[in-house]
């Protein structure tokens, strides 16, 4: 197993809140593009994008030098609209994640709209940020048409939003709202899933990720009770939900940012209260056999089928994510009642746990962006076989890598999500209350900036109503 793939696998396992029992060569949807180099089919690409709420990854370019530190920059409506379009990229057309446009050296420097931070010395408290448009100065010599951007320019420092959200230990004292998209947003008014309940135990307590939107937390409790009382399931071990104020996380998960996602272990709950230490150390059970592309019938039981079916049965639940081998097993076990299968979506990882995602809850209208609805098709047959092929470990001889040109440097990793690319309301979510986390001023966004700069500064698109 290559180092990159190993790291991917480990990251995904950490993301899922499970410990490694044996090193399956599989990855969480978070890092899908690293698993297979070949192009995914439109259906797979569309679903991958839909479930992760993924946006186009940034190209890693530094911010241009003309953005002054300490100022907040604002998208024009036009730039916002362009981003919204990218976000809502036609799923049916190709579904593929398209690379962003590359800026051309020598593109004219556009005017920049600068939003003065309200905290500048002459700003009155509560005053609205002042918006100034800076036109290029015609008296100054203009850059030659094809000049390279100066290489010595230092980009202003960016504070990764995951550090700010990771520092929030308690929820915001605001009304409950899920704000933004599943992979780029935050959560106001979170509540905690109690670490012990009549039919569940929360795991990995040190992560402090047992926080969710009240609707989701209620749903998890309901699933635990229903599956115990009606299906005879011994109880749920619940992995990651969200941080106290949602948002990006220091480790793992691209999604889980709105408090609307919950990981539930496929390991049945033991018939006793686990200690805190055990909740950190116990390894989850893989459902796969030695081929990695089929469930082990000694481990994956009719009880698991019923549990996942139960989870998919609630109207609030829009998707349940499982490994393709589990999806295939469900297709085979479902019999004639198949409507629920459409919500159960195959994706890498998810063989130690399944992932429940509910839709935007009441009270979050206008700020929570709904995900692409499932098609209603049960997803069995050809579709699940395509997923199985995709996760089948490669067993052939090592493939030769194309030679690198001399002086080749690998592209830098995409920059982290910053507050500028989250909805503005997420700043209030972070800062509110005595346990709030102060958000330092940062360059916000760039009007008409080269297209390649936009993805990592991209705002989470929120619904219009
Ligand atoms: Zn998850």
Can you lay out the helices and strands and say which pair or pack?
Elements: H1 3-16, H2 42-52, E1 72-73, H3 77-87, E2 112-115, E3 131-134, H4 161-167, E4 177-181, E5 184-188, E6 191-192, E7 196-197, E8 200-202, E9 211-212, H5 214-231, E10 236-238, E11 261-265, H6 276-281, H7 302-313, E12 317-322, H8 324-333, E13 344-346, E14 353-358, H9 382-391, H10 425-431, H11 454-457
Parallel strand pairs: 8-10, 12-13
Antiparallel strand pairs: 1-2, 2-3, 4-5, 6-9, 7-8, 11-14, 12-14
Helix pairs in contact: 5-7, 8-9
Bound molecules: zinc ion.
Brief summary of the model shown:
This protein has 465 residues and is α+β, with helices and mostly antiparallel strands. Helices cover 24% and strands 11% of the residues.
Give a written overview of the molecule.
With 465 residues, the protein is an alpha+beta fold. It has a domain at 161-391: Muramoyl-pentapeptide Carboxypeptidase, domain 2, CATH 3.30.1380.10. The chain is built from eleven helices and 14 strands. The protein has helices at residues 3-16, 42-52, 77-87, 161-167, 214-231, 276-281, 302-313, 324-333, 382-391, 425-431, 454-457, and strands at residues 72-73, 112-115, 131-134, 177-181, 184-188, 191-192, 196-197, 200-202, 211-212, 236-238, 261-265, 317-322, 344-346, 353-358. The strands form five sheets. A four-stranded mixed β-sheet has the order 11-14-12-13, covered by helices on one side. Strand 4 (177-181) and strand 5 form a beta hairpin. Helix 5 (214-231) packs across helix 7 (302-313) and helix 8 runs antiparallel to helix 9 (382-391). It starts with a helix and ends in an 8-residue tail after the last helix. Zinc ion binds next to strand 11.
């Amino acid at each position: 197993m290559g180092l990159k793939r190993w790291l991917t696998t480990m990251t995904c396992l950490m993301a899922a809140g499970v410990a490694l029992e044996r090193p399956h060569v599989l990855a969480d949807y978070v890092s899908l593009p690293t698993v297979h180099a070949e192009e995914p089919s439109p259906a797979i690409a569309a679903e991958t994008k839909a479930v992760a709420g993924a946006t186009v990854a940034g190209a890693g370019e530094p911010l241009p030098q003309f953005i002054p530190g300490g100022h907040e920059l604002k998208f024009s409506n036009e730039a916002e609209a362009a981003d919204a379009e990218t976000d809502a990229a036609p799923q049916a057309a190709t579904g593929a994640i398209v690379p962003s446009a590359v800026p051309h050296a020598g593109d004219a420097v556009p005017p920049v709209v600068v939003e003065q931070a309200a905290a500048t010395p002459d700003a009155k408290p509560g005053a609205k940020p002042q918006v100034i448009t800076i036109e290029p100065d015609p008296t100054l010599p203009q850059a030659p048409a094809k000049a390279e951007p100066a290489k010595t320019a230092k980009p202003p420092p960016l504070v990764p939003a995951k550090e700010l959200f990771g520092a929030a230990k308690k929820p915001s004292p605001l009304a409950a709202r899920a704000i933004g998209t599943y992979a780029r947003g935050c959560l106001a008014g979170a509540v905690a899933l109690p670490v012990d309940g009549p039919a569940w135990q929360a795991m990995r307590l040190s992560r402090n990720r047992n926080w969710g939107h009240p609707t989701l937390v209620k749903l998890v409790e309901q699933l635990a009770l229903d599956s115990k009382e009606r299906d005879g399931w011994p109880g749920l071990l619940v992995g990651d939900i969200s941080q106290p104020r949602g948002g990006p996380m220091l480790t793992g998960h691209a999604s889980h940012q709105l408090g609307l996602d919950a990981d539930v272990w496929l390991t049945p709950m033991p018939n006793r209260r686990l200690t805190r230490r055990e909740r950190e150390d116990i390894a989850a059970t893989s459902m796969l056999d030695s081929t990695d592309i089929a469930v082990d019938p000694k481990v994956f039981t009719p009880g698991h089928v019923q549990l996942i079916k139960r989870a998919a049965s609630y109207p609030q639940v829009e998707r349940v994510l499982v490994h393709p081998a589990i999806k295939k097993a469900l297709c085979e076990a479902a019999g004639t009642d198949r409507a629920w299968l459409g919500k159960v979506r195959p994706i890498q990882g998810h063989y130690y746990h399944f992932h429940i995602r509910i839709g935007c809850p009441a009270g979050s209208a206008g700020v929570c962006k709904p995900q692409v609805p499932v098609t209603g098709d049960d997803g069995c047959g050809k579709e699940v076989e395509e997923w199985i092929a995709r996760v089948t470990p490669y067993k052939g001889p090592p493939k030769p890598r194309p030679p690198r040109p001399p002086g080749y440097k690998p592209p830098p990793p995409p920059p982290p999500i910053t507050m500028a690319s989250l909805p503005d309301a997420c700043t209030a979510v972070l800062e509110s209350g005595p346990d709030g986390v102060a958000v330092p001023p940062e360059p916000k966004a760039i009007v008409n900036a080269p297209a390649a700069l936009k993805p990592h500064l991209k705002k989470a698109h929120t619904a219009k109503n």
